[in-house]
Each structure stands twice: as structure tokens, then as C-alpha cells.
């Protein structure tokens, strides 16, 4: 120990400690606590010995801008008929009304008015 209170470790001990910390599954913090040293100092030593990979930067992918299509080149999606339509059930005035695909709105309006009357 130095006069200023700092502890001095041998190079062999530091090398051994860094090797231990670099093993798979070893907790650097627990290892540092066990040997009464600062975990940040141990991690710094590991970085200096290239045992800790540098922090990964996010990958940047190249972006290619395609030319804007003019109005005549735009494809317009046309609605496709449903393969199988299920009826809608409406309960009005105690009656169950089943409305199938293709029912005329005017007919439905008349039936609903009659049921409410």
C-alpha cells in the first residue's frame, strides 16, 4: 500500500484478474467485489486488454430513392368481392333481424321502421 492509501497490485495479479473476468458467465462486478477492487477499473483493464468488445453502433443501411411515378403509372386497387360474407344480426323490438351482403339499404330501412312501429 502506498503512503496515500492506494493499494498496489502486482502485474501478475492484474493479468490473472482480467483473465478471470473475461471468462464466459463470470460477473465482473462480483469478481471485483470479491477482490475488493472497483468494478469500473476492472472493466477498463479488460477494455485495454481488448477482452471487452467496443459498444456496437447501430447499423446504417443505404437508402436509394426511387423516382416518383406519375399519375398514369399509379396502380389503383379494385375492391375484390368477399369470398364468404357473414350476415349481420340486429335485435330490434324483440325481433332478430339477419342482414346479408347485398341487402338493399332502402329495404332495410323500411323493415327497421316497421319493427319500431
Approximately what portion of the residues adopt beta-strand conformation?
Answer: 5-15%
Number of DSSP helices? 4
Rounded mean pLDDT is 81
pLDDT under 50 segments (min length 5)?
Answer: none
Distance between the termini: 100 Å
Tell me, briefly, the overall form: elongated
Main sheet: which strands, in order across? 1-2
Helix-strand string: HHHEEH
By DSSP, the count of extended strands is 2
Query: Mind describing the biggest β-sheet?
Result: 2 strands, antiparallel
Based on CA atoms alone, the radius of gyration comes out at: 38 Å
Class by alpha and beta content: alpha+beta
* Helical coverage, percent range: 25-40%
Protein name: Transposase
GO molecular function, one term: transposase activity
InterPro entries: Transposase_8
Structure notes:
One of its GO terms (molecular function) is transposase activity. One of its GO terms (biological process) is DNA transposition. This is Transposase. It holds the Pfam family HTH_Tnp_1. 34% of the residues lie in helices and 9% in strands. The protein has 117 residues and is of the alpha+beta class. Among the domains are: 11-48; 85-117, no CATH class. The longest helix is centred in the last third of the chain and has 12 residues, at 105-116. The N and C termini lie far apart (100 Å). The model has no long low-confidence stretch (mean pLDDT 81).
Give the tags.
single chain; 117 residues; alpha+beta; two-stranded antiparallel ribbon; 4 helices; 2 strands; 34% helix; 9% strand; Transposase; DNA binding; Transposase_8; transposase activity
Amino acid at each position: 500500500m502506498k503512503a496515500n492509501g492506494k493499494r498496489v497490485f502486482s502485474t501478475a495479479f492484474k493479468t490473472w484478474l482480467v483473465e478471470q473476468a473475461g471468462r464466459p458467465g463470470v460477473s465482473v462486478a462480483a469478481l471485483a467485489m470479491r477482490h475488493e477492487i472497483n468494478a469500473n477499473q476492472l472493466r477498463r483493464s479488460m477494455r485495454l486488454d481488448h477482452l471487452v468488445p467496443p459498444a456496437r453502433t447501430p447499423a446504417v443501411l443505404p437508402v436509394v430513392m426511387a423516382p416518383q411515378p406519375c399519375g398514369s403509372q399509379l396502380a389503383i386497387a379494385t375492391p375484390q368481392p368477399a369470398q364468404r360474407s357473414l350476415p349481420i344480426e340486429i335485435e330490434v323490438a324483440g325481433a332478430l333481424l339477419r342482414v346479408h351482403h347485398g341487402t338493399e339499404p332502402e329495404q332495410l330501412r323500411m323493415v327497421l321502421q316497421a319493427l319500431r312501429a
